[in-house]
Amino acid sequence: MIVPARTLFEHAYGKYALGAYNINNLEQAMGLFRGCIESQAPFIIQISKGARSYTDKSMLEAIIRAADQIFPEALFAVHLDHGDEAAAMDCINSGFYSSVMIDASHHAFAENVAITKRIVDAAHAKNITVEAELGMLGGVEEDISVDEKNVCLTDPEEALEFVKQSGCDSLACAIGTSHGAYKFSGGQGIHFDRVTAIQNLLPGFPLVMHGSSSVPQDEVQRINAAGGELKEGAKGVDPEQYLPAAKLGVCKINIDTDGRLVWCRVHREHFRDNPSDFDLRPPGKIFMAEYAKFIASRNVYLGSAGQLEGSKAHALASK
Ligand code: G3H
Ligand code: 13P
Ligand code: ZN
Fold first, then answer.
1. How many domains does the chain have?
2. Does the N-terminal or the C-terminal CB of the chain have fewer CB atoms within 10 Å?
3. Which domain holds residue 233?
4. 133 close to ligand 2 (CB < 6 Angstrom)
């Protein structure tokens, strides 16, 4: 059942976070749904602009509609990840998405507010949830790359003002994480003092953490042992920190890179061990099973595992 992200946040706030997982193809969709049903977790499917244009935007929509039928128990929001104004409007008008992100964080404050407000007005008229972003994460997202020196953590006072002026439903905050496989070289991590300060000014308001992949070191090592050349030693977010962040109002935790690492490891190992194989289905089947296992394990860290029934009861009651 597809519901607005806002409905999922209402049940999760302060208790657990929803895993927001990016998908690009049917194997990821199957693994995601299986993992969430196995762990009895509500979740958010994210579709980036790149994912929408990988084949045709209607292809992913059709895959998700099919998955919704195959797994009638599932409870989720369909979310545009890092949308610009045109993509967000397109998703709002599609009648399929229940949540959109408008990422105008690279603009100055007033322009970010103005763009976000236009999306909020259009989205709320259709009961669609809007995530906005304030602050600057590091790493690469879509076609924008942010150098470490330009990263700036979200200012709590600005966050309060931004939410008031824009009317957005949730806010992606820069709190120390970054996109991609190379986040921290040392002992850095989430700036919990910053999250606390934001929550103090915006109590009850859902916060979003991007760049939350954990970049498991055993995954990186297996990829490299099978011919990959990923830089070892770079770290992701410690998944033990997901739940403490959730308790501070972080309701949505974005995980994409880790799923790509699972895909890469499965395919590299399969073709290393079966050099004469050229069939796509055997590694595809292994990937779906491994991705489902990965998703279920993340949902346990996020605290969303086991919350499906309660969240569904809340969603049905608020219809
Ligand atoms: O933050 C970006 C997400 O990981 C999506 O990546 O734009 O390559 O699909 P993508
Ligand atoms: P990762 O690169 O850490 O998986 O972050 C994904 C993300 O923030 C998608 O919006
Ligand atoms: Zn992101």
1. 1
2. C
3. 5-318
4. no
